[in-house]
Amino acid sequence: MLGNPYSKSRLFAGPILIPRYEGEYDFGNVLSALLVEDPFVEMARRMLWLRARTALAEDDAQSWRLGDLIEAVRFAADFDYDDIKSLKRFFRMLPEEAYRLLFNPLTRVLATRLPDDRIFPANSIIAVEVLSRFGIVGHRNHYDAFAATVFDQLGIVAQPPSSPPIPTEILAFAERLRGIKAAVDFLVFDEVISRSVQEAVARNWTG
Fold it and tell me: Which DSSP string corresponds to 95-115?
């Protein structure tokens, strides 16, 4: 798929590590777009994803589907997400696999080449540099602006689709996480990126 000169479009889905594949593209000839999510909403979604796969981790015939995350799933099953003390203990005792899943995931996507790379303050600078090379950068809280810009750049004359609603369970959990210092510390780089993108869109989008 990579290096194929006859391919007119490609879709990369999932936690793609951009620096690992960025060299395969001439960004002057392709439209690249990235939609930034609120970091706490993303963390809530990932933590609930772990809990939702508890039964899968306990199934000897199916647990292989979880790959390296199987221990993270088993770990999450032992904690009560509705209890603040339990959540604080969750962040103190994270196994490596869960740490990599939850620690500044946007910075990891933008500034690392391998899944087990450690994230340092310098990675936040790299993340911003990589982000600046995208053709379109939007924020989930301004989804209409992002979708309209993508359609405009692609020459699509139609009403862009609406943003899928975020489940109330995820939103409520995200708000709970905002009040936990350990969770805040886990997202310090992503929060700076998210806030900067959101402020830039709000300042420059005229509708």
Answer: -HHHHHHHSSHHHHHHH-SST
Dist CA 2 CA 73 (whole Å): 32
The pLDDT-based confidence of 31 (bands split at 50, 70, 90) is confident
Give the CB-side neighbour count of residue 41, counting CA atoms within 13 A.
Answer: 12
Specify whether the CB–CB gap between 51 and 80 falls below 8 A: no
If you average pLDDT over residues 114-127, what whole number do you get?
92
- Give the span between the Cα atoms of 29 and 144, in whole angstroms: 25
Please provide residue 137's backbone torsions phi and psi, each rounded to the nearest 5 degrees.
-125, 125
pTM, 2 dp: 0.90
* Domain locations in the chain as residue ranges: 18-204
Separation between Cα atoms, residue 156 and residue 134, nearest integer Å? 20
How far is residue 99's CA from residue 67's CA, in Å, rounded to a whole number?
A: 15
**Quick one: pLDDT at residue 112?**
94
Crossing angle of helices 168-178 and 39-52, in 10° steps, is 120
